[in-house]
Specification:
Layout: E1 2-7, H1 11-18, E2 23-31, E3 37-43, E4 69-78, E5 81-86, E6 94-99, H2 101-114, H3 122-128, E7 131-136, E8 161-165, E9 169-174, H4 177-183, E10 188-189, H5 193-208, H6 219-225, H7 231-238, H8 244-248, E11 255-261, E12 267-274, H9 295-314, H10 324-328, H11 335-344
Parallel strand pairs: 2-6, 6-7, 7-8
Antiparallel strand pairs: 1-9, 1-10, 2-3, 4-5, 4-12, 8-9, 11-12
The chain binds iron/sulfur cluster (2 copies).
């Protein structure tokens, strides 16, 4: 890793250099009832719209490379034969500017499932390979953020450049040759002792500001032991089975595939839609049998996939601790409370 430092006035130049490609970044859309900014990722065309000082977004970046709905291919009859057309929807490079460590870690986890193994997902990979990511060190975690507990508050790969705000300048971690070439085009220098010191101060200040945490010690074993625990029934009674948690989660990737035939029987298409394992028909199979009819069973399996199955397969959790699911859940079900209850055998609220 190479480190550089540049003045804040240079950020606009960096933004302009990258804006030759479509650029997605944090944009303030509105304020909530307490006057706090509501920020979401969107295409940015003006540097003034870049809202870097955001705690988190409601939605992650997931849908820029794993859209909610995506047409995978179309079929057309041609005489006695037929043609198949596959579109990976990867038309041009996209820049993602101001992405927090938790969201880059989420992409790195998705890469393990969708980007490797015997059947890598070409639709995901096409978009993922066409990304240029500028990370940004989150300054003030929300009270519901527990990324530090999940080891996702810092990130070592999966980005080109990662910036930390040192008040009058940025401390830049340069990860790739593309980023190195880019930084040559702005006024940047090598960091000195003072920069290193202030960077470490930033990190320790941020670390002290986390309030939520999850005890992950021996969690996979505890989940194995507590598979029949009564607490799952309790959470199932609260859960509305709405699927919102998976919708906002940066690492939920389950989808269903649909095939539709044109009314004139001359063509067809195959599409996929992201789905949630909490929805009632998630485990319904041909013939109508539903393997997970009860809400508590579906909720339990979501937790087992994140904190048990994925750990067994990849030696890390599928949760980055962004807290989005808990903030979006109308039943106020949060990961820290569910995990605490499995450990203690008691639901506190
Ligand atoms: S958002 Fe909450 S209520 Fe909705 S499915 Fe997820 S846990 Fe259940
Ligand atoms: S499970 Fe919840 S806290 Fe964990 S990554 Fe998904 S949305 Fe974030």
């Amino acid at each position: 890793m190479i480190f550089k430092v540049f003045a804040k006035t240079e950020l606009e130049r960096l933004f302009e250099l990258l804006s030759v490609n479509p650029l997605v970044g944090p944009l303030q859309r509105d304020t909530d009832t307490s006057g706090n900014p509501l920020v979401g990722f969107d295409y940015l065309y003006d540097f003034e719209d870049l809202f870097l000082d955001y705690p988190t977004t409601h939605y992650s970046l997931k849908n820029y490379f794993l859209p909610y709905t995506e047409q995978m291919c179309t079929f057309q009859l041609a005489g006695t034969s037929w043609n198949k057309h596959v579109d990976l929807h990867d038309y041009q490079k996209q820049v993602f500017f101001g992405v927090h460590a938790c969201d880059i870690n989420a992409l790195n986890k998705l890469d393990k499932v969708l980007g490797t193994g015997p059947y890598p997902d070409p639709y995901y990979l096409a978009k993922r390979r066409n990304m240029f990511i500028v990370g940004f060190n989150c300054k003030t975690p929300l009270p519901t953020c527990f990324c530090r507990s999940m080891g996702a508050d810092t990130v070592l790969h999966g980005f080109e450049m990662f910036l930390t705000d040192l008040e009058d300048r940025y401390f830049a971690e340069i990860r790739t040759s593309k980023a190195f070439n880019l930084i040559q085009q702005i006024k940047a220098r090598d960091p000195d002792e003072v920069d290193h010191h202030e960077y470490l101060d930033f990190v320790s200040r941020k670390n002290r500001s986390f309030t939520a945490q999850v005890d992950t010690t021996d969690l996979t074993k505890i989940l194995d032991m507590e598979f029949q625990s009564e607490v799952w029934n309790g959470w199932g009674e609260k859960c509305l089975a709405c699927g919102t948690c998976a919708n906002v989660c940066p690492t939920c990737y389950c989808y269903g595939v649909e095939e539709n035939v044109d009314l004139n029987l001359q063509g067809a298409d195959k599409s996929r839609r992201l789905y949630s394992c909490n929805l009632i028909d998630f485990a319904t199979v041909a013939g109508g049998h539903n393997f997970r009819k009860e809400r508590h069973v579906r909720l339990k399996y979501r937790y087992y996939h994140k904190h048990r199955g994925f750990v067994e397969a990849f030696e890390e959790s599928l949760c980055v601790g962004c807290g989005r699911c808990g903030r979006a859940c109308l039943a106020e079900i949060t990961v820290p409370e569910v995990i605490d209850s499995v450990r203690s055998g008691v639901i506190e609220k």
